[in-house]
Amino acid sequence: MIANKIQTLENYPDDEIQAEIDKIKRIQNHQSPLETYKQIIGLENSLIIKAKASNFEIALKKKLEVEDTLNIMQFYSEDVKNKFLNGIRKVSQYIAQQDYEKAIQKINKITEELNQLRAFRESNAFLEMERAFITLNDNIQEDAFVDQTIKEHVENMKRALDGENSSNFRELYQKTVDKLAYDRSTVIADAIRETLKEQGYEEIQTSIEEHGRFKVRGFKDNKPLTFWIEPNGDFDFDFPEDALEDDHKCHQEIKTVLKNLKIRLKEKGLQLNVIEITRKFRLKKAVKQVVEDITDQAVEETRSEDGTVTIRTIDKERKVRRTRERRKQIE
Fold it and tell me: How far is CA 150 from CA 137, 184, 191, in A?
């Protein structure tokens, strides 16, 4: 047994250990086997202590490096960040228990996962997803009707940005966009129905057109008023040519409908975004002013060849830029 232990120690790559082995072999024949055995056991114990000290230093150094990385790294999902932090806590437990091998194995695994996350963060796919998510998340913060399903989609998208289930990101993103558009359009359609009913319209119907576009139509004196709601919350509405007897009544109808609709939408946490109002008659400046005042947006008017006049609400700064461009062209 002594010979086997000596042979094992001779294979250990340490100069100090080799010197001690040579010393034991030289005096082996001048002392009892028990004394030789004690010396070998002592040498083995010192080896264990040295190995533990070395592994402790390695484990502690790696743990500190990973902690520094986690402190400066941005995480989108608290769940993913906590997963790494829990891993670090486990490493600390192993070190406290002097189980340095397990500590090193665990920290190596965490380091590998962090390196994979870094590589993913540098990819074009990640940058594309990040831009899409930031824009979507900004829009979500403004919506008053975000439900639990949307919140779960957002959390799963955050996990995808942190390198988990990234293949599902686009599917989750599209589901979220579609659901937000549907929920928003539903709320706006409800507000329009309530407004039309209040204004004396009857036979009010709602349908969903192509590309998720909602259509709401009501009748007053057998004449229709139709709204189209875009997925982004903007909408158009249209009076047929002979819907009202004169321009003045049409102006009043537009004013009343928009004013009441704005109130309804505000109650539901939304704002009025009108894109187009179309009718085959000469829109007076008063109508444009009504829309501009009620929506707090700038208005442009266009007339098509068939006589249809369309007024569109646009961003005020955009209108200023367009006006300047037209003046330059004239000059």
Answer: 10, 12, 22
Q: Please, is 272 exposed, middle or buried when counting C-beta atoms within 10 Å of its C-beta (0-12, 13-18, 19+)? A: buried
Q: Which residues contact 320 (CB under 8 A, 6 or more apart)?
A: 298
pLDDT of 302: 75
Q: Which amino acid is it at 173?
A: Y
Give the tens place of pLDDT for each residue, 252-295.
Answer: 777 788 888 888 888 877 777 776 666 555 555 656 777 777 77
Rounded to the nearest 10°, the torsion over CA 138, 144, 149, 150 is -10
In which element (H, E) is residue 225 found?
strand 223-229
Sign of the dihedral through C-alpha 212, 213, 214, 219:
negative
Helical H segments across the chain, by residue range: 2-10, 15-27, 33-72, 78-96, 100-121, 124-142, 148-161, 169-198, 247-267, 285-295, 316-330
Parallel, antiparallel or unpaired: strands 223-229 and 298-303: unpaired
Domain ranges of the chain: 2-121, 124-176, 184-330
* Residue 250: partners with Cβ closer than 8 Å, 6 or more residues away: 239, 243, 244, 279, 281, 287
Q: Does the predicted TM-score (pTM) go above 0.85?
A: no
- The helix (run of H) or strand (run of E) holding residue 203 is strand 202-208
Q: How far apart, in whole angstroms, are the C-alpha atoms of residue 171 and residue 173? A: 5
Paired strand residues for 208:
214
Report the b/e string of 144-168 with b at 16+ CB within 10 A.
Answer: eebeeebeebbebbbbbbbbbebee
151-196: pLDDT as tens digits: 888 888 998 888 877 778 888 898 888 888 888 888 889 999 999 9
Q: At what angle do helices 15-27 and 2-10 cross, to 10 degrees?
A: 150
